[in-house]
Amino acid sequence: MVGDRGLALKAALIEKVAGALALDIGTVRRFGRKDIGARGLASGWATPEEAHCWNDGPEAVLSLATAPPDFRCVLVIEVVPLINAAAAKQDVTFFGNGLRLGFWRLTTEEPAQLEALIEPKCWRLQDGAAILDLAVNLPDSLRLSRIQSNGDDRELGLCFRTLALFPAPQGH
Questions:
Q1: Is residue 9 part of a domain?
Q2: Rounded-to-integer distance, Cα 123 and Cα 100, Å
Q3: Is pLDDT of 114 > 90?
Q4: What is the pLDDT of residues 19-66, one digit of tens each?
Q5: Domain containing 123: what range?
Q6: pTM of the predicted model, to two decimals?
């Protein structure tokens, strides 16, 4: 059942054991030091800033743990793409445990909500929790040292702000 305290505690245990971020269904989490910090940021991430986190490289992997859902879920991630004269677009592809979940082409600096449908079969079960290793492919990430001379050598594409997991609406 959604929100079951025992299952949420199990997901929190997995966070400690496997390094995944515990994500209760229906709860919005915030990237950055104020909430998520570095929990679940497996690879390809810059150091978390106060209220957001950038990718650092062409692929970032985020490991999520939740109570095993027996229904479809929608993963919603709010991002702001790096768009400028050197990067006219940001192509974004999500893969969950190796399965393609979605593709977006972002062409403005406006915040965007990326929504991906997660089928129950997409989750990997481990010690009673459902795990999703979300690989975010960002081939248009831009090395900042190419456009500025301040010594910042990060390779950025998306500024990640929030993420949440919700039950999918009927017919979705």
A1: yes
A2: 13
A3: yes
A4: 789 888 999 999 999 999 999 999 999 999 999 999 999 999 999 999
A5: 5-167
A6: 0.88
Q: Domain for residue 172, yes or no?
A: no
CATH of the domain at 95: 2.60.120
Number of domains forming the structure of the chain: 1
Domain-embedded: residue 91: yes
User: What per-residue confidence (pLDDT) applies to 1?
Assistant: 43
